[in-house]
Amino acid sequence: MQPSGLVLVAGGTGGVGKRVVDVLRKKGYQVRVLVRNEEKARRLLGPDVDLVVGDITKESTLDPERFKGVRKIINAVSVIVGPKEGDTPDRAKYNQGIKFFEPEIKGDSPELVEYIGMKNLINAVKGSLGFRSGKILFGFEDNKYKELAWGALDDVVMGGVSQSSFQIDPTGGENGGPTGLFKGIVSTANNGGFTSIRTKNFSAPEDLSPYDGFELRLKGDGRRYKLIVRTSGEWDTVGYTAMFDTAAGQWQSIRLPFPVFKPIFRARTVPDAPPFNPANVMSFQLMFSKFESDGKLNPTFKEGAFELPVSSIRAYMAEPITPRFVHVGSAGVTRPDRPGLDLSKQPPAVRLNKELGYILTFKLKGEDLIRESGIPYTIVRPCALTEEPAGADLIFDQGDNITGKISREEVARICVAALNSPYACDKTFEVKSVVPFSETFTIDPENPPPEKDYNEYFKTLKDGITGKEALERQEQESPVAV
Predict the structure, then answer these.
(1) Which of 462, 386, 400 is nearest to 431 (CA)?
(2) What is the DSSP letter of 223?
(3) How many whole angstroms separate alpha carbon 304 and alpha carbon 300?
(4) Distance between CA 90 and CA 76 in Å, rounded?
(5) SS3 of 414, please?
(6) What is the number of domains present in the chain?
(7) Where is each NADH:ubiquinone oxidoreductase intermediate-associated protein domain found (predicted)?
(8) Which residues form the domain of 273?
(9) Are 374 and 457 in the same domain?
(10) N or C: which end of the chain has fewer CB within 10 A?
(11) Cis before 320 (ω within 30)
């Protein structure tokens, strides 16, 4: 299974990134590549690749409008490290691995690339990727109020006498807090029989395509209601409609997946209307009606007074949630300040963190931005990268303790596999091959090993382990001056 919409690859001309692009395209994904140098990208990736030119270190080049339609991202951008003594045009020394040369930063600083650049990239794509907790569209959350302008739209427009209103009840919500309240009196007199409240058109369409449906938090009364969503700014137009039942006297969450919304106009299905488009939501309407659609009647309808407290409407992501942001980091990011480490046994970047512009410190800060963003993520921390082929047996670990090497091709495959694995979601892990540095891993090109089922590795991962635990313990145990 592959995700709908575009997969963006940032850093697609680097050693891992170009392999990610290749793996995605071979698997049939729709791919767009964020690059700084279009000419270089065309040369490396081919003339037909979909490119967007931008630089994560320059916020002005990352207008979120340029990333509409992107549903997932694999970020392989990294600060450039190279040999002090220089390198060959094809970066032969670099490709051997940092273990084999004296390194220095080439170009932009780690702070600019790994931290500020990460902040810029997240801000550019977060609206397209969505948030695990969903997107609040109306109501009360964390002592904040997302306001919509609701107005009554009742059967009086057809000669009826029903009436309704919308108001904020300051103490009618759960736990005595505030809630919105849809209330009224419905009557079938004069061939009427419905009441509703409708919002004004939004100032700009809501793009909810990263999500899977609408969730209403409300206190039911045993009746069946309708949620009507419009994707056009016109007033008298098709409304995409879903009916929902409520439980009397209970606060409940009602989830309405996007596919259940049917195109309805004046209580009749519109068979030739396009399907509901969550990328262009313009208004909401809540309705209590005698009529469902196409001549069917509401079995819970009864005349008289009603009240429906609605504390929130949000767009939600359906479980199981898979990663939207896959990031290629680095093993060792928590080690420079870790107590008790024998630095002589650590990779060069750990020993030379300060000399390399605090490269690992800022990589860790960039990781933290991802974890704190609310976007479903996977953070892959490879050990030393090599040009060897994929196929060696692997070790996945957590806590940032292992050293070793791993093929860039293998890392690319892991990243692509993570896109569709709920087991990889919101996980941080290190990975290396079982082959030691002293041995070269080769394969028979005529009979390569089959691609691994990476899900079996992802299933072993646990939540909340980053390697920062040792640093946090150190802070807690350090004496505080008074």
Answers:
(1) 400
(2) -
(3) 12
(4) 19
(5) helix
(6) 2
(7) 143-309
(8) 135-316
(9) yes
(10) C
(11) yes
Are 125 and 142 part of one and the same domain?
A: no
Calculate the alpha carbon distances from 89 to 11, 44, 93, 159 in Å. Answer: 19, 14, 10, 80
Phi-psi region of 194 (alpha: psi -120 to 50; beta: other; left: phi over 0): beta
Reduced to 3 DSSP states, what percent helix, strand and coil does the chain have, rounded to the nearest 5? 25, 30, 45
Q: Choose one of 255, 281, 316: the last residue of a domain.
A: 316
Are 404 and 467 within one domain?
Answer: yes
Residues pairing with 8 in the sheet: 32, 73
Q: Is there a single domain that holds both residue 50 and residue 70?
A: yes
> Are residues 410 and 390 part of one domain?
yes
247 domain residue, yes or no: yes
Among all chains, which residue has been given the structure tokens 């691609």? Answer: 451
**Distance between CA atoms of residues 188 and 158, nearest Å:** 11
Domain boundary among 258, 285, 316: 316
Residue in the block written with tokens 């939004």: 202
Does any domain span residue 103? yes
Predicted confidence (pLDDT) per residue in 202-222, tens digit: 999 999 999 999 999 999 999
Name every residue whose Cβ is closer than 8 Å to that of residue 214 and which is 6 or more positions away in sequence.
Answer: 137, 227, 229, 242, 255, 256, 258, 313, 314, 315, 316
Those residues whose C-beta lies under 8 Å from the C-beta of residue 170, and which sit 6 or more positions away, are: 178
Give residue for tokens 């953070």: 379
Distance of alpha carbon 93 from alpha carbon 88, whole angstroms = 7
Q: What is the pLDDT of residues 288-323, one digit of tens each?
A: 999 999 999 999 999 999 999 999 999 999 999 999
DSSP code for 14:
S
Bridge partners, 69 (sequence order): none
Tell me the per-residue pLDDT of 105-147, one tens digit each, with 9 for 90 and over: 889 999 999 999 999 999 999 999 999 999 999 999 878 899 9
- Residue 19 near residue 415, CB atoms below 8 Å: no
Q: What is the CATH number of the domain that holds 160?
A: 2.60.120.430
Q: What is the CATH number of the domain that holds 395?
A: 3.40.50.720
- How far apart (Å, rounded) are the C-alpha atoms in residues 3 and 71? 8
Task: State the pLDDT at residue 104.
Answer: 87
155 and 126 within one domain:
no
